[in-house]
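Reopening this one. Same input as before:
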Amino acid sequence: MSLANAVGQLDGFVRVHFAFFTSLWALLGAASVGQDTSWTRLILLLVAVACFHVYAFVLNDVIDLPRDRANPSRQRDPLVRGIVRPKAALAIALAQPLITVPITIQLGGGWAAHATMAVACLAMAIYNVWGKRCPAPPLTDFVQGIAWGALALYAAHALGARPNALTWLVFWYGVAYTLFMNGVHGGLRDLASDFECGARTTAIVLGARPGTPGHDPHVPLAVAAFGWATLLLLVALNVVIVVRNDFGYDLGEWRATALVVGALIAGAVLLEPLVVRPRGQVWNVAFRLQMFLVIMSLPAAFVAFINIRTLLLLSVLMLVSMALLEWTPAIARWALHPHGRRRPDTVTS
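Same output, byte for byte:
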């Protein structure tokens, strides 16, 4: 097996391309309490977060295996192909929360850190089991958001600090981003396979339906309204984070931060009409670019505040995730090429 193939199989099993997403909440949670964390403690924190990452994604894939077998985009995954047996994958997933215990002790975290990690794991289990079965899927999306956001609280507790207002803003951003990501983007991306398997997602409950072969899906006003509402919630959180200025930025730093965060959010808002009206392959690029702009607005607010070690780790993790995401070249072409938006057929899956 070649190195590229091995990396692809690993990514298909534990979703390495989401490493930046998972680590972001914990690293910004650690940064929010203002500690100049050493390399050793940062790496230990990332190991604990990696355990949660494996737990979350592998458990989800075991539970969703019947649906994934019907999803064309998941046919190369080791679980779907039978390379990894479901019982073995389940054992790997359930072992991860136990591994976080000695790591948390080594970090110096007390009962609050262990309890917060337990809440994150429980919330993720609730979503994985009932996420596409609940009559009110925004509720389980909210529960999943708690799982991701709790990583910020865990990081603060694990480093021996108390979560502050900035930590809680990171927490709520994680919750709101999950509603935004799952409710519209993920729901429309997997609409055909979810609908075929009888899943209950926010998009389906609000009336979205797959299109006939060769045609775009039907996305009613209710889905668009939900998409706009969650996006505006994230815009509001960005405004609160910048205006409150818990970072203590001087006027020059504050203006530069406000300009960058504002530009990222403005780009996301301009993309929303394309996201809530799926039209051909352009939609596949537009929604991914929008998700990137929205999530990057949070670390952009922190850039002048966090220490260089945390900034380097975030940068490396982002580059790794982008390198593994097969849509990165298409997104770059579509965003930068002056004629890219007129030629959606050039975007390949």
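So the earlier flakiness isn't reproducible anymore. For the record, Residues 49 and 222 are 36 Å apart (CA to CA).
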